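G., the chain you wanted modeled:
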Amino acid sequence: MKVLFDVFELDRGHGNSLGIFRYAQELFQGLQAHASPEFELVLAGHGGNAADFPVTTPHARVLQVADHYPRHAQRLRWRVLGARQAMARSGAQLYFSPKGFLPWLGARRSVIVVHDLIPLWYAEAHPQHFRGPQRWLVNHGLRTACRRADELITISAASAVDIARRTGRTRHVHVIHNGLAPVAEPAVASEAPRGDYLFSVGSALPHKNLAGVLAAYRAYRQLSERPLPLVICGAPDTGEPFVTSVRGLGEQALQAHYRGAAAFVFLSRAEGFGFPPLEAMQHGVPVVCSDIPALREVTQGKALLVNPDDSRQAAEALLRATTPGEARERLREEGQVTAAQYRWEHCARQVFDVLRATALR
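Predicted structure as tokens:
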């Protein structure tokens, strides 16, 4: 069996979801542990991302389809004809996409990973977010991919329910949770702020609910006798007093910010999985996060779950998370135990099983 692993449209710095990019990296690395003469991997990529997907086995190789990140016309051609040609050129019998969109492949077998249907949430809740051809691609392309793929992998039971509700797809759907990289000891002095602080990861995108985080923080300051400052990674400068926005953190600096936090707050309105709360839990940091299906599932009840639009409830949870005592220590310990269950080698093994079974059907 030869599998075409499609990362042609993925790149660290060109507007793709960093979460999907990291997923593809970790999964390609993990799948190589299962590579053999009976299971060969062909990575379809471009010159700009070749170094991000190192080959570590003689049973994997790279098919460089372009010299650099593809432009719009190249991406369209890839979906219409290029992917099919790459399958024939490489001799692959099975197409695999970690991104969720499905190009035209004729009668070739396919497995795709649909992380979430947040783009369809935007089409309903914020229709102005997508315009023209992009709106069509989201509404038609994503739904069509969900319906046409031979096998569909998704990253949470919550996403599987959403896929069934929005596209009608219920058969040949596999729930395989993401993994987390092991926490490494810091190699240099901490790059986190000095002193105690609250930490959050987000952006200005509506589903990340930055306004809700700020409202909860203002309510927390009114409740606490000694309120801590808030540091937000990834969001633009808010202009709020006692709030610091940081952007462009490297992986080591980001992990240092998690490690040094007194508590972590994440009030997203829509998620397919939710890396940030689990990354905080890895470091023994108490988590306050939205009571939405995906976060409820992956945190397994070991976070303080709140209504993302109830600032008072979130503020009270932050106060509990930062108050020394048995309850806070239990959150720290149980959070670390929960996060330790998510490993990339487990994820890769389950994806390998789906790929192998699909090829043998």
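The mean pLDDT is 93.

Shout if anything looks off.
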